[in-house]
Amino acid sequence: MRFITVVSGLVFLFSTLLSGQTIGDRGWTFDIEKHDARFPDMWHWAHAGVQCGIPNEADFPARDTLKPGDDVQEALDRAAAQGGGVVLLMAGIYPIHETLEMRDSVLLRGVDRGGVVLSNQLRGPFCPNPFGNVSGIRFQKVSWAGLENLTVQYQAVDFPPVDYAYFDYPWQKETFQNNPGGDRQLYVSHVTFDHAQNSWIRNCQILDAGTDPILLLESEHISITQTRVEGAYNKGGRGNGYFNIEQNSRYVLLAEDTVRAIRHLAIQSGAKYNVLINNYLEVDVNFHNGDGGHNLVEQNVVRIPEWHSWHCFSRGVPKHHRPPGPGNLLFNNYTQFKTRIPGKRDKITEYGDSIIYTSVLPADTVEAWGQPHAVHEYGPLDFERMSHGHQVYEMNAFWDDRKSVLKVHKAAPKAQTFYPVTHAGADRKCP
Q: Which CATH class for the 6-423 domain?
């Protein structure tokens, strides 16, 4: 079993204590009494994810039960022709030799998350256009479609991707390279949302992708919850190995996920009003290339392994990528950058408790863009656990202009969260 730290348990405390229900499920609603008018984006963040929450399995009629060897695509098409429903997969391996196209109002569900494997056997060359990537499963122009309770794994080759089970394994240049084993045909994404709406992945494993494990393009109101995303063969640059929210995707909710052993969790190319909450991440959150701003990253555990190459929160290289958008907020994340190395790095760079900051324009873009910039910090700050003089720089190495660090000028939101949701019951009627 691959390494998972006990710290990951901390990240689920918020929703578990409230109701035992996963954020993003049917029944969660915005607590209007906790709205703070100083932060108008709270209204938008409350609407991230599937509108009214992910439907229950009981909301879909049963259409088909498949066993290994049955044609999954035919079953999805039949269910769609009947107005939608559940296609249930019994335990076993289901090879994917052509892109599996999801359909409107169809839920593809396994009987056991680890026992039902969609085996991605596809191969494809590098494509610089994200819309041109070969994909194992595609939500293209669909709505109210979902994957639940199953594993998607890339099995087109007989060797594993390069990553390490131990958190303190030393950095190796082989980790973040493309074309492993000299194979140039492994540029295959696992799951792509392409102009999709109100669709989701819940309680799945997305393992060992050829390139991007999950790719969101021009999609909105997507929920990815309680899902493990781990591993990629190609993660050596040129846009490979990303959990990728891009191309103007909006209102995407990531909640209670585990993400590790990929290149970046990237928010970019106009992506806006997306929420990452209560996740366990062993990968950086990267505002990579001109996101639309106004994204929320709150109450996550972000721990960077020794063999990973980026800080907890990052951006693309300024000379190659556009700056992050305005109004991104990072709040109350527990972050840990790499490990202790005697004589070289004696202290883990570690933060927690009540950190918020938002970039109007990063400091290193001023000369290129010729516009004012600021990094705002909000309190209260825990001076026993962190140094005010280093917290922004250490967590964000690209913000190296110390003049951009302003004094605290606003209090934290009155509810101590930018995402004040409450569970009103799964039987709550949608508007």
A: mainly beta
